Amino acid sequence: MSITTLTATPQQVPHVSECGSTPVPVLERTEAERRAGLLKALADPVRLQLLSIISASPDRESCVCDMTEAVQVSQPTVSHHLKTLVDAGILTRERRGSWAWFRLEPLALEDIRQFLA
User: What is the C-alpha separation between 92 and 25, in angstroms, rounded?
Assistant: First the structure.
């Protein structure tokens, strides 16, 4: 048996045994890393709470001032989690006066839904 390196293009899984399984396309490494980043951003209880607040709010947006007390962690911790979600492209941030408002990014959510289906 030889060892091969995965490239950025889809490859066929080599037959390792005589079990008769059909080769399937392999997810490109860069796409796997992108998807893992999205899932990693979601994989935190506080972040999931924040997303639930935003998704239940009118227009699917919420002010940071309304989220801190609800999740019962400090404001800097809430800001850290929101930044992680913004950096992942799951939320967008808009400054309104002295407050930051966060909105769900529908294309990112649809992307996550599709690759989990």
Answer: 33
Task: Tokens for 56, please give them.
Answer: 């239940």
Q: Write a three-state SS string for the chain.
A: CCCCCCCCCCCECCCCCCCCCCCCECCCHHHHHHHHHHHHHHCCHHHHHHHHHHHHCHHHEEEHHHHHHHHCCCHHHHHHHHHHHHHCCCEEEEEECCEEEEEECHHHHHHHHHHHC
For residue 92 the two structure tokens come to: 């967008």
- What is the model's pTM? 0.77
Retrieve residue 30's tokens: 């860069």
End-to-end CA distance of the chain: 33
Helical pair 45-56 and 64-71, crossing angle rounded to 10 deg: 130
Higher per-residue confidence, 11 vs 65: 65
Per-residue pLDDT reduced to its tens digit, 1-28 = 444 455 566 665 555 556 777 778 889 9
